Amino acid sequence: MANQTVNPQRVPAAAVNRRLGKGRIEPVLFHTINTIFMIFLVVVTLYPFLNTIAVSLNAGNDTIRGGIYLWPRQFTLQNYKAVFVSGTIYDAFWISVARTVLSTLLNIFLTTMLAYTLSRREYVFRKPITFIFVLTMYFNAGLIPGYFLMKDLHLINTFWVYVVPSMISAFNLIVIRTYIGTIPESLIESARIDGAGEFKIFWRIIFPLCKPVLATIALFVAVGAWNSWFDAFLYTSSRQELSTLQYELMKLLSSSMNANSNPAVAAGAGMTQEAAAAMVTPLSIRAAVTIVASVPILLVYPFMQKYFVVGLNVGSVKE
């Protein structure tokens, strides 16, 4: 029988060159298209923010003309002067900081503790309690019952009305419980054999191992607490000393919608009312308010980015 094995030395040199050429072109083509796409994505993502900065640093009367892209045509700081002139803005800033820090820490600690409890198979009530929490994600009592609940708890016009309602989150509970389920049970059993109690197991083993998902949840909770203003409008609007930064910025933005008849904006910018009408407009004030509100979050995010990326991949890889 004739030997049908193909001798590699008999393969035409032209075919080998074509294969090698194709192997060299495909990676180059892929990386080129991928680079172009990523550059386009970066431009699309950064342009709105850079445009907002340019508008916030541009004279209001010139902004009305349009055509502001990445650089202001008439540079001015009057928009930021109008934002920061009120002394209440600084007190509101610290209220927002305290609210954000306390809400984040309490939410992370209490939600993780509850998630660990509900992840234990030996806990007989874990399913009905989980069902009750999940039910709250689909059904809400409404605004008026929520207000009367805060009133019955004596939280109206107090700082704790910002913190207490956000101490437990049903969505965060489900995410953290799912992550805890990926932790090997042998670690917990080993700790129990060594005599560790449930709280010690939670604090020494579960909590440190949940850092990636906790950093992700912390970022979500902090952004939500920082950007919230409606609860200040509902529960503490009668006490100026409890006003939050977002609520003060919202009031400033609302008042600037009619800049020509707003003496507060004119005085805030250090100008006469006529000059303010020419220099400070609702569009420019809105841009300045957006930058002031977003800068603190932008300063915190780089420190949590690596945990944020890991936390988003929770459950995406199964071994």
Explain this structure.
The protein is mainly alpha-helical and 319 residues long. The protein has 2 domains: 14-63; 78-312, MetI-like (MetI-like fold), CATH 1.10.3720.10. Helices cover 69% and strands 0% of the residues. It has helices spanning 13-56, 60-63, 78-84, 88-119, 126-138, 143-152, 170-180, 185-193, 198-209, 211-227, 230-235, 245-255, 263-268, 273-279, 282-312. The model is unreliable at 260-266 and 315-319 (pLDDT under 50). Its main location: membrane. It is found in: Cell membrane.
Report a brief summary of the structure.
The chain is mainly alpha-helical. The chain contains 15 helices and no strands.
Descriptors:
319 residues, disordered C terminus, 0% strand, mainly alpha, MetI-like fold, 2 domains, single chain
Q: Tally the helices.
A: 15
Which word captures the global form?
flat
**N- and C-termini, Cα separation:** 49 Å
**How many individual β-strands?**
0
Any idea what the radius of gyration is? 29 Å
At the fourth CATH level, what is the homologous superfamily of the largest domain? MetI-like
Mean pLDDT: 81
Portion in strands: under 5%
Major β-sheet, in short? none
What is the class of the largest domain in the CATH system?
Answer: Mainly Alpha
- Classification by helices and strands: mainly alpha
CATH architecture of the largest domain: Orthogonal Bundle
**Could you state the oligomeric state of the chains shown?**
single chain
Question: What is the N-to-C succession of helices and strands?
Answer: HHHHHHHHHHHHHHH
Low-confidence region ranges: 260-266, 315-319
Overall tally of domains = 2
